[in-house]
Amino acid sequence: MKQTVAKLTSRQNIEITQEEPAKLLPGHVRVRIETVGICGSDVYFFESGHCGPDVLPFPIVLGHECAGTVLETGEGVTHLKAGDLVCLEPGVPCGHCEYCVQGRYNLCPDVEFMAAPPNYVGCLRETVVHPAHLTFKLPKGMTSVDGAMIEPLSVGFHAAKQGGAAFGKRVLILGAGCIGLMTLMACKAMGVADITVVDLFENRLDLALKLGAARVVDASKRDTAEACREALPGGADIVFETAGSAATTRQTGGLVKTGGVIVLVGNTHGDVPYDFFEIMNKEITVRCVFRYAGIYPLALDAVAKGLIDPAQVITHRFGFDETQQAFMRSVTDKKDIVKGIIEIVAN
Questions:
Q1: 211 closest CA partner among 228, 235, 233, 189
Q2: pLDDT higher than 80, residue 347
């Protein structure tokens, strides 16, 4: 029996069509996908039709933030069973390269990541066959909507860990989109109380305050550097750039405390002029975030214990038959859509 799939067939055009389900393999599970989060990378592929300088190999299937219910298990799978509500860690590494052996499997050169080069095999489909060891049972009380948010929350936790977030640190987050807000919640869960968030849009700043920011700066009304100097004399211990903006990336060196840490989280494209003399004189540490490794259990535990409610960032919900509309709205209404999800099975 064929299943329904949403395929990006050309730039800004998604078609709902049919396909043969993937074959169940040993060590894998077949999951009925219920909720898929719309990531900024998905929107970028949809809007531009490119991955960097390369045209996408249409048709492709988008989506990598997902959760659903196990339908069947392959040979050798013992920790999961049919009926379990699960979320899927979307990157499947080789398991034997130097990075995988070190536990930094997010850097594996042969990782197969959903809806990413080279295969672009995403989860906007009725069922997915996935390695069981990268499939996590959701704790009691969590929904598939919560489960789909574990992927972006893992990025936030990886960023917080890279920055050394802890009680007593003063944190500055540039950008209050989904990843900025996930980083905010991760820092709060790790004990940070003094968090300043900067963005251009009032609705996002209001959400940041709701999620626990100590203060916010509206960069559409105030000079960011001046406002941050007033709020954080001497600079922030940790500055997270989550907007993926050349402008905010340039600002990080002037906003961080001497001896502090800059964490680059957003995907900033192109050349960015940067004052390296400034960060050298301040002996700043610059760290980067590329996905995550070994973070899913931590993120799930934080949600299960009530430390974080990642579904609070969701502002828009769409049905599976509204996938084209969901992506087009994500392109044309970036101000209001902080986080959109597609509910393949209604929750």
A1: 189
A2: no
